[in-house]
Design goal:
It contains eleven helices and four strands, in the order H-H-H-H-H-E-E-H-H-H-H-E-E-H-H. The protein is α/β, with parallel strands linked by helices. It has one domain: Nitrile hydratase alpha /Thiocyanate hydrolase gamma (Nitrile Hydratase, Chain A, Alpha-Beta Complex), CATH 3.90.330.10. The strands form two sheets. Strands 1-4 form a two-stranded parallel sheet. Helix 3 packs across helix 4, helix 4 packs across helix 5 and helix 8 crosses helix 9. It starts with 35 loop residues before the first helix and ends in an 8-residue tail after the last helix. The N terminus is likely disordered. It binds fe (iii) ion. Fe (iii) ion (FE) binds next to loops. The site of fe (iii) ion (FE) has 5 residues, from loops.
Amino acid sequence: MATTDPDAHDHHHDHDHNHGHNHSHDPIEVAEGAGEYEIMVHAIKELLIEKGVITGEDIRKTLEFMDTRTPALGAKVVARAWIDPEFKKRLLINGTAAVAEMGIPMGDAELIVVENSKDVHNVIVCTLCSCYPRTVLGLPPDWYKSRNYRSRVVVEPRAVLKEFGTELPNSVTLRTHDSNADMRYLVLPERPAGTEGWSEEQLVAIVTRDCMVGVAVPKAA
Ligand code: FE
């Protein structure tokens, strides 16, 4: 593979390596600067700007917008569904339209909301890469993008959930949903017992990111 190091023409270090002791090992190379994918992204970005497809301002605005996306948005959607049965109906029928009501855009992707019950527990993954309902939950955690999670949650969801501290009775059916560029999933957890009469704010506070990915369940405590 061709190197992308701009200084690759000079691998003969012109500084003195013999500073006081002998190097019996190869010098430890510290990888600095951009990796292969980062360089590729920059190259594509520059081409798109050069060809007038997007502007630098578009990119800046998008990054600024993504920084406003956090799991608190998803938590508001879930809490609303818990207290408003009509909203919940709309959310389950057409997630994209229902979150748009709350000012959350899905962009080009469709949002599919999957509801947990006492019989069914849903968990989301992107087996191929890292598709995630980013406009609702912000950026995915590192483990969501890991090969380990992506491959195992499909074949042994119960064991993976257990590692997250979530143990479900054997009577509960586990369903894993594979996200892609066109379809993003959001788990609607079951409202826990003991939250009767809680305000919307109180409910929002117990709905965590992991609950909406399906690796955890909200607790009243
Ligand atoms: Fe993906």
